Automatic annotation (TrEMBL):
Coiled-coil blocks: none
Domain Shikimate dehydrogenase substrate binding N-terminal span(s) in chain numbering: 28-107
GO BP of this protein: chorismate biosynthetic process; shikimate metabolic process
Listed transmembrane segments: none
Signal peptide range in chain numbering: none
Gene3D superfamilies attached to this UniProt entry: Leucine Dehydrogenase, chain A, domain 1, NAD(P)-binding Rossmann-like Domain
Database matches in Pfam families: Shikimate_dh_N
Name this polypeptide is given: Quinate/shikimate 5-dehydrogenase/glutamyl-tRNA reductase
Length: 327
């Protein structure tokens, strides 16, 4: 689980001895990112590492803009968000196992080849943010969860990261999916047949199925905290309620944190005795993983605490709107 050590499989460090004082830049590429919380968090984490690096937003879906920025020698890494996580990943020189198996890239970092040439490596730190958030709260979760079913709510890109994390680090080979559309679950099943064929997916289509299945130990929400209106959304909510009201308890992590990290899933899990983890913690730990890859060192405990406090204040004081969920 040594993130930095694993990154050197892709090449050596590009950083000079005075890297912290060098004017390097990191860029976020995506659509509708003007209210992203990434600049707030990364500025805090850079400061905690005494690095005079800067973080910039580039609101674009133009791959040529992305490629040109990579060629700038002062660019030390990037963050990639929707709708670029697949298309921009193809422009990088290599991908980590996480990025390949999830099918999406949210981070790039630089390593040097044997000739000293810069290589841009794509990875996915969303799954690492999920892993580290759970292990911080429940250090024994990787042991406790092994062999037990898990559950993912949703069927989109974030669900892929959640599924990978559950399979790779928590030993979940039986994963329940609660989602408004069966077609999205079918697409997930087909995708992971080629990357993690030992996973067995079970689509929970009815409340009756949720009432009789084995209780999942880890439940991860990957959908917005919206009031359910369509039939599929209402059923999905009822299935979640049924699972969380069961006698056995485990861990609930909700990746949604806007307009508040205290979501319906968070509140319901907490009220029923589950260990709950808000999406703000996941976002901070995603950013920490990115910082480790760029700065090539751990983030200080004070930096982590400052980032956690800052994001909690930001989302609870209404300093950012719904689009700030872009990371």
């Amino acid at each position: 689980m040594d993130l930095l050590k694993q990154s050197y499989a892709h090449g050596s460090s590009p950083l000079p001895p005075n890297a912290a004082a060098t004017q390097y830049h990191v860029y976020l590429f995506g659509g509708n990112i003007s209210k992203s919380l990434s600049p707030l968090l990364h500025s805090i984490l850079f400061r905690a590492s005494s690095a005079s690096w800067t973080f910039h937003l580039t609101e674009t879906t133009d791959s040529s803009v992305f490629r040109n920025q990579l060629d700038d020698t002062t660019c030390i890494g990037t963050t990639i968000t929707m709708p670029n996580k697949v298309s921009f990943g193809r422009l990088l020189d290599d991908l980590t196992d996480e990025a390949r198996m999830i099918g999406a890239v949210n981070t790039s970092f630089i390593r040097l080849d044997n000739y000293g040439q810069r290589r841009h490596i794509g990875t996915n730190t969303d799954c690492i943010g999920i892993r580290d958030s759970i292990l911080y709260r429940m250090p024994d979760a990787a042991i406790t969860a092994k062999g037990r079913p898990s559950m993912v709510i949703g069927g989109g890109g974030a669900a892929r990261s959640a599924i990978f994390a559950l399979w790779r680090w928590f030993g979940s080979t039986k994963i329940y999916i609660a989602n408004r559309l069966k077609s999205e679950v079918d697409a997930l099943t087909i995708f992971f047949q080629s990357t993690a064929p030992d996973i067995t997916f079970k689509y929970l289509a009815t409340v009756e199925q949720a009432a009789t299945c084995e209780t999942p130990y880890i439940v991860i929400g990957t959908i917005p905290n919206d009031i359910p209106r369509e039939a599929g959304e209402i059923t999905c909510r009822q299935i979640c309620d049924t699972i969380l009201h069961r006698k056995d308890k485990g861990i609930v992590l909700d990746m949604c944190y806007l307009p508040s990290p205290v979501t319906y899933l968070y509140t319901n899990g907490n009220g029923n005795g589950w260990t709950v983890i808000p999406g703000t913690e996941v976002l901070v730990r995603v950013c920490i993983a990115q910082q480790i890859l760029w700065l090539e060192k751990d983030v200080s405990n004070q930096g982590v605490d400052d980032a956690m406090l800052a994001i909690w204040k930001a989302v609870n004081q209404g300093q950012s709107g719904p689009k700030a969920s872009k990371i």
